[in-house]
Design a protein that fits this description.
Haem_d1_sf; single chain; 5-stranded antiparallel sheet; LVIVD repeat-containing protein; 29 strands; LVIVD
């Protein structure tokens, strides 16, 4: 492994770095109160979240760590309407967890009236091992990616939180075969809702991993119905063949991507691409994003050779929040050892890379992955409405970035 000691970027400027008191950040959310801006980051290797004041991203302020329940993964945070939804999921055995039942599972609901001291209002329990990545854009409903008892893989649970102290599941949807307790026969490995669902009007767009890209009719939230689906495996990476499905608001398009799982290129090809849903009963893949190329002078000819995971992971998602960037001509996508990649998607038939940022490799280990050494692994990305970009890493804190005001041609 050739250590990368400094950040390498093209058309992206680094604004700052938040070490998070030696913790590794993961999924993020932003909240604004008056003139003050706050970023909340879930943690990757321990339960809980941290709070930063990002009113001036050049001089951010670390506020506190809010611990989560022991033996629980709290990977994701969603914020809307002054409420925060934090996922709680049982730690699997291979990461040091235990067999169920689990006391702390589902998701917690918080009030952010005092943004520096969130107050927990209630907890929804799945009746199983909890939730992974949920969707909440405000209002009455949380679209949870849950794993209730008796199911083979995560499913969609729609939860009414109008009374936060007593959240109530009103419906659920799953792929045929998942309900083992109901006599269904099981599904192929990796057929599960990775989440989160993304709601647009009376449709929910579901990234169902090996189960493909799914469109649901949720005009009756108590009885979701399948509209259509689009398989992605084979030929693409099987286990999380569809990790994210992000519908655009003003174009009948959905940006989809897989998640790289295995290290050192051991799995099938990962991808990011664009699906045309103008005929929603017949969704079709119309383009693929170009694969990231190593920067000039890199000691590896492709990113697989760099080691650890290479492939797409998370997209920036607007989710109707005025504190977040809404620009449907640009896609921000994390790519593990290839850092953050930014694409111009104004022509849906020809996505083009316009910027990238490769963080330096970590200098200390904060978690067990990657197993191949301390190689930077960019996890999540969030962009605020001011244009500041925040990315997290498996063994580092958060990098604060911004697209360069003056763009240059790709370096040769």
């Amino acid at each position: 492994m050739f250590p990368q000691k400094e950040a390498i970027s093209w058309n992206i400027d680094q604004v700052g770095y938040a070490d998070l008191d030696g913790k590794a950040g993961f999924k993020m959310a932003i909240h604004r109160v008056g003139e003050r801006w706050y970023l909340y980051s879930a943690l990757l290797w321990e339960p809980g979240f941290v709070i930063l004041d990002i009113t001036d991203p050049h001089k951010h302020r670390y506020i506190k760590h809010v611990p989560g329940p022991a033996d629980t993964m709290t990977f994701q945070i969603q914020i809307a309407d002054g409420k925060m939804i934090t996922a709680m999921e049982a730690i699997p055995n291979f990461l040091g967890g235990h067999e169920g039942p689990w006391e702390h599972e589902g998701f917690a609901i918080w009030d952010l009236e005092d943004p520096e001291n969130p107050q927990q209002l209630g907890v929804f329990k799945t009746g199983g091992s909890g939730t992974h990545r949920n969707y909440y854009d405000g209002g009455q409903y949380v679209y949870a990616t849950g794993l209730p008892e008796g199911f083979d893989g995560h499913i969609l649970q729609i939860v009414d939180i109008s009374d936060p102290a007593n959240p109530t599941e009103i419906s659920r949807w799953w792929r045929e075969g998942q309900w083992l307790a109901g006599g269904e026969g099981g599904v192929s490995a990796g057929t599960l809702l990775h989440g989160g669902a993304y709601v647009k009007g009376d449709r929910a767009y579901l990234p169902y991993s090996a189960g493909g890209f799914v469109i649901l009719d949720i005009s009756d939230k108590r009885a979701p119905k399948l509209v259509s689906d689009l398989p992605f495996s084979p030929p693409f990476e099987h286990y999380i063949a569809v990790h994210t499905a992000l519908p655009l608001q003003n174009r009948p398009l959905v940006i989809v991507n897989s998640e790289a799982i295995l290290e050192n290129g051991a799995g099938s090809l990962g991808y990011a691409g664009i699906v045309d849903v103008s005929e929603e009963e017949k969704p079709r893949l119309i383009s693929l994003f170009p694969l990231p190329e190593p920067p000039p002078g890199a000691p590896y000819k492709n990113f697989v050779e760099r080691g650890a995971r290479f492939g797409p992971h998370n997209q920036h998602q607007w989710q109707y929040q005025d504190v977040l960037l809404n620009d449907e001509s640009i896609c921000f996508l994390t790519y593990f050892n290839a850092g953050l990649r930014v694409y111009d998607i104004s022509d849906e038939r020809l996505p083009k890379e316009i910027a990238y940022f490769l963080p330096p490799d970590p200098t200390d280990r904060r978690g067990p992955w990657p197993t191949t050494g301390l190689i930077a692994q960019t996890e999540d990305v969030l962009v605020d409405s001011r244009g500041y970009i925040f990315i997290s890493d498996k063994n580092q804190g958060l990098y604060i970035l911004r697209l360069s005001e003056t763009r240059t041609p790709r370096p040769a």
